[in-house]
Amino acid sequence: MFVCNCFGITEEQVKKHADGGACTPRQIASACKAGTDCGSCVRRIQALLGRGACPTRDLVKEGSPAAALAPETELPEAA
């Protein structure tokens, strides 16, 4: 089934890019242009990706080298 009619991108293609590490609609757009023309498919792409389905987020929390790119912010303790 087509997700993006503007560029002819299917659900399978979106899932393939997600399996390859794309975990946001913006990353999917970078990989295949889906969602960059009329934008009507962005919500469908979000639904296919699901919430919290990004393995990269888990790696950053575990202290991988990617953590240097997106360090967690610590809040000062209340006095």
UniProtKB/TrEMBL annotation:
The organism's place on the tree of life at top rank: Bacteria
Every BFD-like [2Fe-2S]-binding domain range: 3-50
A Pfam short name: Fer2_BFD
Keyword Mitochondrion: no
InterPro entries in the cross-refs: BFD-associated_ferredoxin, BFD-like_2Fe2S-bd_dom, BFD-like_2Fe2S-bd_dom_sf
Keyword Acetylation: no
Keywords: 2Fe-2S, Electron transport, Iron, Iron-sulfur, Metal-binding, Transport
PANTHER family with a match to the protein in the record: BACTERIOFERRITIN-ASSOCIATED FERREDOXIN (PTHR37424:SF1)
Family according to the record: Belongs to the Bfd family.
Record's protein name: Bacterioferritin-associated ferredoxin
Organism: Streptomyces rectiviolaceus
Biological classification of the source: Bacteria, Bacillati, Actinomycetota, Actinomycetes, Kitasatosporales
